[in-house]
Design a protein that fits this description.
By secondary structure, the protein is α/β, with parallel strands linked by helices. It has one domain: Rossmann fold. The chain is 34% helix and 33% strand. It has six helices and nine strands; from the N terminus they run H-E-E-H-H-E-H-E-E-E-E-H-E-H-E. Helix 1 packs across helix 3 and helix 3 crosses helix 4. It is globular. The N and C termini lie close together (11 Å). It binds 1-O-pyrophosphono-5-O-phosphono-alpha-D-ribofuranose and adenine. Adenine (ADE) binds next to strand 2.
């Protein structure tokens, strides 16, 4: 592993039994508190996708906002928020999904994606892939396509990467 990835990995704290017994929570707040680790994370993702023909970036509430927004600025692309229910003010479409530790719904503004959009979805962490699958469905229902998704952390044992590939989405992750 190179020095940049080592810095990112060493900045992520692991908290056992949070938010439930048996879950090891990978905490990115300890990463954003290290400026060089945070900026390196954003730069590596932006670098990876600068020539990928992406037209829009999606960040998923809430930790996806932290990494998605600065990557969108770095690439000069629109930043679209996928949010939990009842938070977006204009007309929305909704999608239910399963989490590693629960169930939830995500929403997107109906007018934020157009046919032909090639969307990059960014989140802090890929676990089961349920959140990402819900986002992909939201984009596809609005006529867009998702070929790539980027994560700071992947938990490979939870099967998210295979789940994404079955949807035609190639995951890019910085640390496992
Ligand atoms: C976490 C994380 C990812 C998702 C990953 O979000 O930020 O979005 O879970 O899990 P999955 O691959 O099994 O779907 P969470 O819903 O806990 O919301 P938060 O970002 O607001 O804490
Ligand atoms: N989201 C889903 N599973 C998680 C985990 N183990 N750590 C941090 N965020 C998560």
């Amino acid at each position: 592993m190179n020095e940049q990835l080592q810095l990112i990995k060493s900045s992520i704290k692991s908290i056992p039994n949070y938010p439930k017994e048996g879950i090891i929570f990978r905490d990115i707040t300890s990463l954003t508190e290290v400026p060089e680790a945070f900026s390196t994370t954003v730069n590596l993702i932006a670098e990876q996708f600068k020539h990928a023909g992406i037209t829009k970036i999606i960040g998923t509430e809430s930790r996806g906002f932290i990494f998605g927004a600065p990557v969108a600025i770095a690439l000069g692309l629109p930043f679209i928020l996928v949010r939990k229910p009842g938070k977006l003010p204009r007309a929305v479409i909704s999608q239910n999904y399963q989490l590693e530790y629960g169930e939830d719904t995500l929403e997107i503004h109906s007018d934020s994606i157009q046919a032909g959009d090639n969307v990059l979805i960014i989140d802090d962490l890929l676990a089961t892939g349920g959140t990402l699958e819900a986002c992909v469905k939201l984009v596809q229902r609005l006529g867009g396509q998702v070929k790539h998704a980027a994560f700071v952390i992947s938990l490979p044992e939870l099967g998210g990467e295979q789940r994404l590939r079955k949807l035609g989405v190639e995951p890019f992750t910085l640390v496992d």
